[in-house]
Amino acid sequence: MKKVMLLFLVFFFLGIGLFISCKQKSNDKESIIKGKVTLLVDETVKPIIEDQVAVFESTYDATIVLSPKSEKEVIQTFLKDTTGVAVLSRELNAEEIKFFEQMKIKPKTTKFATDAIALISNKKDADTLIALKDVLGFLKGESQTKIKGLVFDNPNSSTVRYFTDLAGVKEVPKEGVYSFKTNEDVVKFVSENNGMIGVIGVNWLLQPTAKIKDYLTNINVLSVQGLNKNSYFAPTQNNLAEGTYPLARDLFIINCQGYSGLGMGFASFLAGEIGQRIILKSGMLPKDIPGRKLLIKSRIK
What we know:
Elements: H1 2-28, E1 34-42, H2 46-59, E2 61-69, H3 71-79, E3 85-88, H4 94-102, E4 108-122, E5 129-131, H5 132-139, E6 149-152, H6 158-167, E7 177-179, H7 183-192, E8 196-201, H8 203-206, H9 210-216, E9 219-221, E10 223-225, E11 232-233, H10 237-242, E12 248-255, H11 262-271, H12 273-282, E13 285-286
Parallel strand pairs: 1-2, 1-3, 5-10, 6-7, 6-8
Antiparallel strand pairs: 3-12, 4-8, 4-9, 4-12, 4-13, 10-11
């Protein structure tokens, strides 16, 4: 009987030890600076997130798999809970927040930058100025001669949603509006067609891919006149900081992992000093301007 009890106690404690060991190994798989996570990204801001991920991965034992999609596709995938982290140019709406709260998850939203939507035209078009009221009028179906066509990257893009919200329309006109798959397609099409106005995330112009660089010499980046304004402003970092560029938008990383995982670590990185310096260097506007460190020497050699 004593041998049976002894064997029972041995197996009992072995079982507890194995359970604790497995639990620790499971927890060791991911932390805020270690592990692997998929990051859904609004395709219009893909270049800056690629830069951030490259630095983050070189600093920590982490792997972040980027999944660039249109805004609508990001939201659809996000709600299917195939991943817990997303970068968007808007916050979650009430219905989306309710979805996660029903799953006992409280979304954590972190603003990390201010972006701009740029309007571009063919280099052969002499006018480099455009009024926002004309763009919105075109989307409302008002007849005009100033704009021949608008070119978007994707019908489900955040840029389409941005402009339809501004114009107060549910969808874009069936005629005169073109859409492709990527921002690269927009730049290429506008560089080859006069009279077209391209709508693109300015990040693609500040950090162009090799494919886009071939077309940049054939386009103009337009200065935009805001509603009820007299002046025109280009999508520059300074104008974003002063709040004068009329097509500015905030960028957010939204974490719905429900635990302290890599999503939380990357969000902290984006909003931290290194992440903000990367934003500043890119030409976009960081949420917090990083301070400058001055090294003062008492003696000059």
